[in-house]
Write a structure and sequence with these properties.
The protein is an alpha+beta fold. It folds into 3 domains: about 100 residues, Ribosomal Protein S5, domain 2 (2-Layer Sandwich); about 35 residues, no CATH class; about 140 residues, no CATH class. The chain contains 8 helices and 6 strands, in the order βββαββααβααααα. The chain has a 4-stranded mixed sheet with strand order 1-2-4-3. It has a two-stranded antiparallel sheet with strand order 5-6. Helix 1 runs parallel beside helix 4 and helix 4 runs antiparallel to helix 8. The chain is elongated and about 110 Å long. Pfam families: YicC-like_C, YicC-like_N. Belongs to the YicC/YloC family. This is YicC family protein.
Length: about 290
């Protein structure tokens, strides 16, 4: 069963003085591209957090965030006085230079400026970390479950598209004999126009065989059929097959293109166009497969 690279996991852990929310988002990427936003209180645990993520998430653009909401009155915050003074002086200078009125409520203005309110870093005890670590593991599991669910939907889509291409491939056979007969008839009609002309019949027969062999698509049909079966078996072999499925889709495309260039028949070319449409939808979605 394949998995999607897209996923989301969110878990909130309740601690005595704070509420910790762990959030993980994943999108498609050629390799694992991990970015983290971790509060200073958990900075010494960053390598441990990254290790947990790397063990579980093979590929994708992953964003990991921890948010803290402090509960009660004992909030470890303080006003950054140097920052307040700096903002105050800058606003006065701008007011003088640009002749702009000063704010009527200095406190409301200054306290909204960035980095004016500082949260003091505290050491996290092991009991609290155990709870947070559990929340991280649970969020990772939610994300993986999401990937499995999305992967099942992708697999159904791929199975449908592969079945459509296989059905279209079987329709090619309906026009093969007609196509060869049309070619032979066209050649014979042209020969009748030069009746009485002397030509090398052996050479003509060799050219006819060569021309018809060039139009033969049995090899392309067999290879395309094998690629379609290989695509299905690869999906069923397990997750982590995204790149391989992409390579197989490219090979399917090559055989469809060759089939189109050799078809020399309007109905067969229509079938090839329909095959390409089905394959294009596979190629778009296979980029999301883990």
């Amino acid at each position: 069963m394949i998995q999607s690279m897209t996923g989301f996991g969110k878990v909130t852990a309740e601690l005595p003085s704070k509420k910790v929310t762990v959030e993980i988002k994943a999108l498609n990427s050629k390799q694992l591209d991990l970015s983290t936003r971790i509060p200073s209180i958990f900075k010494d645990k960053e390598m441990q957090i990254r290790s947990l993520l790397l063990q579980s998430l093979e590929r994708g653009k992953v964003e990991f965030n921890i948010f803290i909401e402090y509960i009660g009155k004992d909030i470890p915050t303080q006003i950054n006085l140097p920052a307040v003074e700096n903002y105050y002086n800058q606003i006065k200078d701008i007011s003088d230079k640009l002749n702009i009125a000063l704010p009527s409520d200095w406190f409301q203005t200054l306290l909204r400026m960035p980095d004016v309110i500082k949260t003091e870093a505290q050491e996290v005890n092991e009991e609290e970390w155990t709870v947070v670590e559990g929340a991280i593991k649970e969020a990772i599991k939610h994300l993986c479950d999401f990937r499995i669910q999305e992967g099942a939907m992708l697999q159904k889509l791929f199975e449908q598209k592969i079945a459509n291409i296989a059905r279209l491939l079987s329709e090619v056979e309906l026009y093969e004999k007609e196509r060869i007969e049309k070619v032979k008839t066209r050649i014979m009609d042209n020969l009748e126009k030069i009746a009485g002309q002397d030509y090398d019949k052996n050479r003509f027969e060799q050219e006819m065989i060569y021309y018809i062999e060039k139009l033969d698509v049995n090899e392309e049909k067999n290879r395309l059929d094998n690629h379609l079966k290989y695509y299905i078996s690869t999906m069923e072999s397990g997750h982590g097959q995204g790149k391989k499925l992409g390579f197989i889709a490219q090979e399917i495309g090559r055989e469809i293109n060759t089939l189109g260039s050799k078809s020399n028949h309007a109905e067969m070319q229509k079938i090839v166009v329909q095959m390409k449409d089905e394959l294009e939808q596979i190629k778009e979605q296979v980029l999301n497969v883990l």
